[in-house]
Amino acid sequence: MAIGPGVYEVEAAESWLKLVPEGQERTEAMLLDAMPGTHEETLTESAVRLDGEPDNPDVFHLAMLLADGTGLEAVGTQSGIRPRGLNLAFMSKLSKARTFTARPKILHPGPVGQAQPSVPFKMVSKVPLQRVLGIPKACDSEKIKKVRAKASSKWDYEKIDCQLTLEKGWIITKKLIFEGAQANQVTLDCQWATLGDGTNKDVIEVRSREYKDKPEGDPNYETEPWKWERPQNVTIKNCNIIGSVRVWGMATNGEGNPKKYLEKEICIPGRFPVCQKQEKPNSNELKKSSRKSGHTKRVQANAPKNIVFDNVKITGVGRNPFYLAPGVTYTTLMNSTMNGKSDKVAIYLDAESSYNTIKRNQIDVATAKDTTGDNIPGMKSRGWPIIAIDGASHNKILNNRFSQTNRGGIYLYRNCGEGGIIRHETPSYNSIMNNIFYYNKYKGPKPSVYLGSRDYGIKERLGHCNDDDGRPFGSSASEKDYARHNIVMQNQFYKRRVYRPGPGLGGTVLVEATIADYVKTRNTKANSPNYIEHNQIVTPQTVVKNRRAGCYLANASQNFLLHGRSLDLLEDSGNKACLTQSSCTDGEFSRSNASDCRVNKVDFSCQVSGNNKGCQKEVACPSGKKLVGAKAACNLEFGTVSSNALQPILPNLIKVLKASDKVSAGSCNVGGNKLQSGQKEITINTSFPSVAVGCKEHDKNGGDCHIKGVLYCR
Known about the structure:
Largest sheet: 10 strands, parallel
Strand order of the largest sheet: 12-15-18-23-28-31-34-37-40-45
Low-confidence stretches: 95-133
Number of domains: 4
Strand content: 35-45%
Structural class: mainly beta
Mean pLDDT: 86
Distance between the termini: 48 Å
């Protein structure tokens, strides 16, 4: 069934979703096959959800969620091609999915009786009209005229709900706003027109629409909770932006909008009229939400999603040039340049923003000096870095070139208490890979990447850190940053020199910087583990430009794979071991859908007690099989290795669970991979069917050791 663009009333009818086009008779309704399921949203009334898939823009999900925790969900595509796998976006499955096809610009089908078999209707719930999938039309000449009209004030704007194409040479002085579902699927192609006239303001806003179902004046209006309708799948490209860009949902920033501007201005007439926005106190819905559990899911569901900025030039004039406010997800800035100046940072990823990508950009923005601690004895200003990752997780920063890094490169932290807002997420699981950090004459201490850069101390405790107290979660429970599981790999840092403490009182000496000067961690107890490997110090002669990002492999003995490379990833679930063809393409790690599980596991064990000669043996694969991997665990002091201790060790790793009391007196090995403490990757010749294994410890009373492991054969 094909669904045209439009506004529909959505009802649940037995195992169907019933769509009634706005303004038409109910006999014109369409029935969509839907899948029953359960959801975890807390609702007081039924709600309709429409969303796309970040990894497959062709696929959309339409769901009706009922207040009792059940609902119906239909899956459709724009192309009409049935997706290979059907996963629900809003609910947990109760039965096999069925699909509908949503094609834009296709006339509605005929009456239900002609389009579907006769099905007895039972209306379970009814919701307000919702905009269902549709590609907007091109902007007409009247709309373009409004866009091009000179801004009457700093706050003048035009809302864009159509496909807008500008022309090179045009200068647009109005702010362009992409708001709510009216902006879904909209593309702005500037064709290098200029947006902004140098005024210090947001030139582009992509924002959610805040609304209530009841009209103002209704006796229940004030008590009705606010709702948000977010924009999705907006593309902005080929624009020369002079000013700033902001993407936001429940609030414009992490403090929750202390003031809320109304849509109209008050102007004092005269020869030189003065206009200003009306403002009123904001109820701070973000703050209210942050005081309850489930805040991350709530704020992300209400914030813009799948917004793309491609091939734009942003010249900062004061405000943060590029700002993703709380909850923004799957938003990309790519193939772009940024220059100019900022009163704070160049790019800000605010709390609970996730799965955003900053990729293939040239960032050359002069950030501000932070003077917060200048008047406190013993405190130093920390600077405003190029990128602030403030309580944001699972973001990717790949293939960029950063300059003007003298006030810091990429800082990961979590604000505490600012605006009384509780930050629920930590700056964790972010990828910072294959970037170039340029330095010229800077010799100071500020790093290119700072993990847990704040981890609050006296400076913040004198301020706002206690403003979010009173809840057992997030920044209310702890003021630490908890920057963990971040990947800092394959970056190139321009060679520079740094000052170190030298002889005499207050003396310094100038030395060559090391990787530890470029990548720092504050308070490793709170801000670890993180994965910092394969980074390089380069010169103008040795830097590698236009290189694509490699991939970090979680839960694998080989944790890094270069772009364009592939491998057979060996995985052991305990019950069976399988090889899966996997590859890396510019920071994206992909796995084949098919795995080869014809892998035999051969257990081995070698143990000795009171013998300084140790234990050695040869372990072989079954006849006709070749070695494809191994893993082992060792105890090099008195004791044994249990099966439970061996099981979580990844294939192709050897790990010492307990070292000898004198570390140098003990060792274990698999195929020549010798180890005395810690863990290391096993590299073995897979052309042979067998491998030597063993352990040894030297003690005056005779050594004790045990090695236990698995060979993988195919």
